[in-house]
Design goal:
Blueprint lengths: L2 H15 L2 E4 L4 H14 L3 E7 L5 H14 L3 E5 L15 H19 L4 E3 L13 H8 L4 H4 L4 H10 L21
Parallel strand pairs: 1-2, 1-4, 2-3
Helix pairs in contact: 1-2, 2-7, 4-5
Length: 183
């Protein structure tokens, strides 16, 4: 499937949701997802960004600038990762516990704002990585529209450039906790 058809599939998938909160980090993937959601859903979408110690302040500030550029309202939720059960113990599935807490709170925020779904920015290239957090995504019913559309990271960057998004060439940035070995 060509890239234009994949983008159409992405926006169709989002329209089918009717309304959605986008888990928004300000990276290339979530920015394209937010732009597509804004185009597909208008004011029936919003960005939800998590403030945590493992998220650099500059990324939070950048996410606010991107929301203003795209024209989407944004809410921040604060989470103390050290209060998440299973996080401090630092097991190999630490990301599962963290993502389950994060997405549970994003779901609550979505519902408080009258939105039916939560969407996150995983893409098909993420399928080969060790991502215990994806288990939480599945368990909680969080949608992964970029993956559903079959988009790769390179295609996301190409579409972002076409749409004039400043994140088209933004380097990937992993969670700061990923720099700490398990155990």
């Amino acid at each position: 499937m060509d890239i234009d058809k994949k983008y159409q599939k992405l926006t169709d998938c989002l329209k089918d949701l009717g309304s959605a909160a986008v888990a928004f980090s300000g990276g290339a993937d979530s920015t394209l997802l937010l732009k597509a959601a804004a185009d597909a859903l208008g004011d029936r979408t919003m960005a939800v960004t998590v403030k945590m110690g493992v998220v650099p302040k500059r990324e939070l500030e950048e996410s606010a600038r991107l929301c203003a550029l795209i024209g989407v309202r944004q809410e921040f939720i604060e989470i103390d990762e050290l209060e998440i059960e299973g996080f401090k113990e630092n097991p190999p599935d630490r990301c599962y516990f963290c993502k389950k807490s994060i997405f549970s709170q994003i779901i609550d925020t979505a519902h408080e704002n009258g939105l039916d779904f939560v969407a996150e920015g995983s893409n098909t290239d993420d399928l080969g990585d060790h991502r215990p957090g994806m288990r939480a995504v599945r368990e909680l019913g969080v949608k992964s529209p970029l993956m559903t559309a079959g988009l790769t990271k390179d295609e996301i960057r190409e579409l972002s450039a076409r749409l004039g998004l400043p994140t088209a060439s933004k380097p990937s940035a992993a969670c700061l906790a990923s720099r700490i070995p398990y155990g």
